[in-house]
Amino acid sequence: MAVVEENWQTKCSAIVDRTTFIFNTELMNDVKFVVPASSGQSESKKVIPAHKFVLAISSPVFFAMFYGQMAETKDSIELPDCEYESLLEMFRYLYSDQVNLSGSNVMQVLYLANKYMVPSLAEKCTEYLRHSLQASNVFCILPHAQKFADKDLEDRCWKVIEKHTKEAVTSDEFVRVERSLVETVVKREELNVKEVELFKAVDRWATEESKRQEITPNGDSKRRILGEEIVKAIRFPMMSQQEFASVVIDSEILNSKEVGDLIKHFSVVFTPSLPFIQAPRKNSPTVYRCQRFLTFDYGWEYRDLSNPINFSVNKPIMLHGVQHFGNEGGNYTVSMEVKDTTDGSSLVKQSGSYASEKDKTCSYHGGCNLQVSGAGCRLQVAGCRWQIVGCRLQVILGLPFADVFRRTVNETKKAIILCIS
User: Fold this and answer.
1) What is the pLDDT of residue 274?
2) What is the pLDDT of residues 319-345, one digit of tens each?
C-alpha cells in the first residue's frame, strides 16, 4: 500500500472530497475488480481497487451484489464484459461526481451506467453523444440509442441521417451495422442521397457482411444476405440509365429479368409493373437544368456585349452553376456574375476558359459549366429579382423549389424552360 498523507481527512471538508481522495487507491479498500486492459486483449488484465460501501450507496446493483441476500463474498471480482478505462471512469463518477468522457470510452461507459443502474451518469453520456453526433459516427451511436430506448437521441440520429445521408452511409460505421438497420435505412422516405450512392453503400455493406460470414462475396451471396426487403426498397428507376448500367448491373445483385425490365424502363419501352418504387424520396438531391432555348435553327450573333438573364424566385433556390454557349470548335474566355437587381449588389463572380463542344443533353454546342461558390449560391429572398450577367448562358438550379420560375416541363420532367423577362 502506498504511503498515505497523515490526517488527510482534515483537509477534505466535504464527503465527496473524502471519497475522491480514496478513489482508485488501496486505502481501506475491501474489493478488487479485475478487467481486461482493453477491448480484444483478454489476456492482459488490470486491477481496480474499490470500496463496497461507496459503490453500494451509488448503485442498486452494487448494493445487491455486496449487501443483498446473495451477497458476493469474494475479495476479487472479474468483469470480462468491461474495459479498464470505462470501468475506471464509472467508478470516478461514483466517487467524485466527475467523469472524463471521450469518443473512445463513452459507449462503454453508457453501457455500464445502464447495467449498474446509474441514471445520472447515463444522462451525462447521452448528453455527450448529443453534442458529438455527426454523420461520420451516427451509425455507431444509433444502435446504442435504440438498445437503451433513448427516444430523443434516436430521433436526433435519424435527423442527421436524413440530412446528411451520403456522408452517413459512406462512413466506416455503416458497414458494421446489423442487417435490420440497413433495411430500416433503405425503407425510409426521407433521405438526402442519390439512389445510386445508396445502392453503392448497401452493396459495400453486403460485401463486408459476406466476409464476416466467411462467404465469397458475389451477386448471389450478396442477394441472399440482403434479402428481398432491402433489394426491393432500392429505387432503381430513380437512377439514370448510365448510373444503372455502370454500377448496378456489374454488382450482379439483380437477376436477369429485373435488369431487362429496368433497361426497358430506361429506354421508355412499355414494361409490366416494376417491383421497385418509382417515386423520388423526400430530400433526395435533384438538380434541374433550366434551358434558355429548347432549340434554335440559326444561332444568334454575338458582339462581345454582356448578355444578361433576369429572373425572379418565389421560393428559396440553390444556384449550382452556369453553362455558356459557343460555336462548334470555338475557344472562349468568359466571366459571369450573379447580382441582386434590387440594390445592384454582387452575390458571386466567376470566370474561366473553355473549348466549345456538342452538349450531350441538347442540340447546341457549349461548355464551361462554371460552378458557383462550391456548394452553390443560395438565393433566399422570395419575390426578389436576380440577374446573371455574362454571355451564352443557361442556368443550372437545385431544389428546394416549387413553381420557382414560370416554366414548361415535358412529360419526363427533363426540360425546364427559363422564362426571361
Assistant:
1) 87
2) 666 666 677 777 777 777 777 777 777
Cell of 234: 432500392
Map out the domains of the chain as residue ranges. 8-132, 150-266, 288-417
Q: Residue 233 to residues 24, 79, 277, 392: CA-CA distances in angstroms?
A: 52, 42, 7, 42
CATH class for the region spanning 8-132: alpha beta
φ/ψ of residue 25, rounded to 5:
-130, 165
Contact 392, 366 (CB under 8 A): yes
Q: Nearest to residue 124, comparing CAs of 158, 99, 159, 161? A: 99
Question: Global pTM?
Answer: 0.64
pLDDT tens, 341-358? 777 777 777 777 777 777
Cell of 378: 443560395
In order, the DSSP letters of 47-59 are EEEE-HHHHHTT-
Topology given in CATH for the domain delimited by 150-266:
1.25.40
| CATH annotation of 288-417 | 2.60.120.820
